[in-house]
């Protein structure tokens, strides 16, 4: 047996393996499949060469081994952002699937749904807000004479919900869980605009962006909106504060611009111009590294250090619909899609631990998924897409599952949408 030649074959990259195309009703965990292949190669090498493989190779090879980089000169790609990655793939099938009819009417909105710290999921349906809780707690839908707009957001404590209104001068309102009714209504002198983005501060102030490009704050104690802090040219589609609330990122939909502002001074910091005109822009702040911002566009994700205004990393992938840092592990979740020649769309939910290494991935062909939400523990992921469903995943595996399992859970197939008829509750 030629040991040197065998080692050469094992270490060479051979032809790409044949990939079995998945059908529309199949969910493929490609990360787990890749891990199994790597484990097989490792076991095979150990069986042939023993525990001290390099020593045997040196006896038969004249090529010197490459000198290892010293710890001082080596810099891991994960240094782009602090992360606590998983050691193996953990995503399986959704634990709960909820029906979301007519959600396609809201796919262009900044946030037609949100998950509160108290566990309630709120969503807009037929111009009213409907609620669902994983433990079965019931709360009646709002009654505003069908005047709720297309944007809502829970506060940090999860006891107040802000949602847009479609009255001429009543721009948005706050809903109290304790009172189960509207607590405060915010008025504005402008009649020809609508609230398109909402963000809460830690001090329970509300930041809103509108279709006329006005960025304002509102105080619950007064019920009035402040004068515009910033006037932008275009519809504001997203407003997000950084982890320590030193920066505010504002996405302007029409101009495909991200305006970075100092908060609470509201002074201009920097403008990020996005090149892919007409494509969705998704942003996510790192959960604990202040000033680290991920920007998702059509052809990839850029990691920005807002403190010194530099791009510290880039991820190349398919057309991106949404990105989100996990609040516990800081793994970056990417929802992307690829349009196939047969007019179908393949969707990828990919978990990245750095700019090049994917540690988990789920692939299916059931429709694009442009909205990602975390529960208050950061262990559960809610995904909303054009398939008119809300899928709740155990992001760190079933061991982190705090939602009551149903007796029919063992009957679930590999296709989450085939199992929908096995699960009773719906959000609407």
TrEMBL record:
GO CC annotations on file: anaphase-promoting complex
Sorted UniProt keywords: Repeat, WD repeat
Keyword Repeat: yes
Recorded GO MF terms: anaphase-promoting complex binding; ubiquitin ligase activator activity
GO terms (BP aspect): anaphase-promoting complex-dependent catabolic process; positive regulation of anaphase-promoting complex-dependent catabolic process
Gene3D superfamilies recorded: YVTN repeat-like/Quinoprotein amine dehydrogenase
Keyword Repeat in annotation: yes
SUPFAM superfamilies, per the entry: WD40 repeat-like
PANTHER family according to UniProt: CELL DIVISION CYCLE 20 CDC20 FIZZY -RELATED, PROTEIN CORTEX
Protein name: Uncharacterized protein
Organism of derivation: Acanthoscelides obtectus
């Amino acid at each position: 047996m030629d040991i040197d030649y065998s080692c050469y074959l094992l270490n060479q990259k051979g032809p790409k393996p044949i990939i079995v195309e998945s059908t529309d009703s199949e969910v493929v965990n490609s990360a787990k499949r890749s891990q199994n292949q790597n484990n097989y190669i490792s076991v095979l090498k150990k069986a042939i060469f023993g525990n001290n493989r390099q020593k045997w190779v040196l006896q038969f090879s004249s090529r010197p081994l490459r000198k290892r980089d010293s710890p001082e000169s080596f810099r891991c790609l994960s240094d782009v952002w602090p992360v606590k990655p998983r050691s193996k793939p953990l995503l399986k099938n959704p634990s709960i699937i909820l029906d979301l009819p007519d959600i396609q009417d809201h796919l262009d909105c900044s946030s037609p749904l949100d998950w509160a710290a108290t566990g309630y999921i709120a969503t807009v349906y037929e111009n009213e807000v409907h609620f669902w809780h994983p433990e079965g707690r019931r709360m009646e839908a709002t009654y505003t004479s069908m005047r709720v707009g297309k944007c809502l957001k829970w506060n940090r404590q999860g006891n107040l919900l802000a949602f847009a209104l479609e009255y001429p001068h009543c721009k948005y309102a706050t809903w109290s869980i304790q009172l189960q009714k509207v607590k405060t209504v915010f008025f504005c002198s402008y009649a020809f605009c609508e609230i398109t983005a909402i963000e809460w501060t830690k001090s329970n102030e509300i930041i809103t962006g509108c279709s006329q490009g006005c960025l304002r704050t509102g105080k619950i104690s007064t019920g009035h909106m402040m004068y515009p802090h910033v006037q932008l040219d275009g519809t504001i589609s997203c407003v997000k504060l950084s982890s320590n609330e030193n920066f505010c990122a504002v996405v302007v939909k029409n101009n495909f611009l991200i305006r970075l502002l100092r908060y609470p001074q509201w002074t201009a910091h920097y403008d990020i111009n996005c090149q892919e005109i007409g494509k969705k822009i998704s942003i996510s702040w790192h959960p604990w590294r202040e000033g680290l911002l991920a920007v998702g566009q059509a052809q990839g994700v850029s990691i920005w250090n807002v403190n010194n205004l530099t791009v510290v990393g880039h991820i190349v992938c398919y057309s991106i619909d949404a990105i989100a840092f996990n609040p516990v592990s800081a793994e970056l979740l990417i929802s992307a899609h690829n349009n196939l020649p047969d007019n179908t769309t393949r969707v990828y939910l990919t978990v990245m631990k750095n700019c090049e290494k994917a540690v988990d991935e789920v692939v299916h062909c059931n429709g694009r998924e442009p909205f990602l939400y975390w529960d208050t523990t950061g262990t559960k992921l809610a995904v909303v897409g054009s398939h008119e469903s809300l899928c709740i995943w155990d992001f760190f595996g079933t061991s982190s599952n705090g939602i009551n399992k149903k007796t029919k859970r063992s009957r679930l197939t590999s296709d989450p949408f085939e199992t929908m008829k096995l699960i009773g509750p719906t959000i609407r």
